[in-house]
Amino acid sequence: MSRFHLKMFDNLLPALLLFITLVAQQAQAQRTPTISYITQEQIKDIGGTVEFDCSVQYAKEYNVMFVKTDTDPVFLTIGSTLVIKDSRFSLRYDPNSSTYKLQIKDIQETDAGTYSCQVVISTVHKVSANVKLSVRRPPVIADNSTQSIVASEGTEVQMECYASGYPTPTVTWRRENNAILPTDSATYVGNILRIKSLKKEDRGTYYCVADNGVSKGDRRNINVEVEFAPVITVPRPRLGQALQYDMDLECHIEAYPPPAIVWTKDDIQLANNQHYTISHFATADEYTDSTLRVITIEKRQYGDYVCKATNRFGDAEARVNLFETIVPVCPPACGQAYYGGAEHIAASASSFALLGILLALLFAR
Predict the structure, then answer these.
(1) Homologous superfamily of the 142-227 domain (CATH)
(2) What is the pLDDT of residues 47-84, one digit of tens each?
(3) Contact (CB, 8 A) for 165 and 135
(4) Mind telling me which residue stretches traverse the membrane in this protein (predicted)?
(5) What is the pTM assigned to this prediction?
(6) Which of 100, 138, 214, 285 is the most exposed place for a label (fewest CB within 10 A)?
(7) Banded model confidence at residue 187, pLDDT cuts 50, 70, 90
């Protein structure tokens, strides 16, 4: 080799060495571990099976790990070794694709979360890719939802219903027997049902239904009780009856809380005795039927009777007029042997019936 060529080689040598160094560095950089594939987000049912695939390149000299990264990270695998002692978990490695496969059987609600495939390169450097597992769960209505309401007429109230589950449940409101809601519709969707001005007609059972398409959903019955002043109706404001017979006077009271009920005549409160019998029958928390029986009516017992009902929200009253008739009114006069004179009436009716049959037979001959 000539001096010229030697001198030229000496001049190119540094550049050649620099080129070789750059190529080596680039080759080394290309061999830094990378995650080429991670399974996409998974949505599974309780009891199902899920598998997470993590494909890693240039990681032969490094440990690949699966970690459940919740509040407190849980290491599941290191390299090809399963760390967690749970028979539901298993790990396989496919050398052809450099893929680690983490499988979970019999999925439980607690398995939901984020799973991370990690390659630790140094104390300050790691490569990772994450996959989220969501577990379908049927709706469960929370304990902090409304259970019952007692409120005064005219006030504003709200019923709350919250439910957990996945997917997020939809909360729908209904009334018993599909009655119209205070929102003027048969159903209402939302966590809070508001009634701006409560009416006594709003009382009853409301249904909070949570549904997300998983299982049958969940339902809670919410009883709404409305406090209001008494309202009295009288089915028969005027009643006639003959002397010495009994008669029932009735009034129907609607009120909550249940009221105190009294009957009066000529501003004197009546009580159970030989002349009167008072009975109350509650058909529901808000309804009471009250009956005053006037026994063996005397002249002085004709006139106006007042049914009064009182609770802490107010009072009401209604009148029933009892007047005299010549013919006994049925009921309760007829067919009751223990009423005054009724035994005689029943016996007379039987006698007349028997006489009619005998006459018919006589004329038939």
Answers:
(1) Immunoglobulins (2.60.40.10)
(2) 999 999 999 999 888 999 999 998 889 999 999 999 99
(3) no
(4) 345-364
(5) 0.67
(6) 285
(7) very high
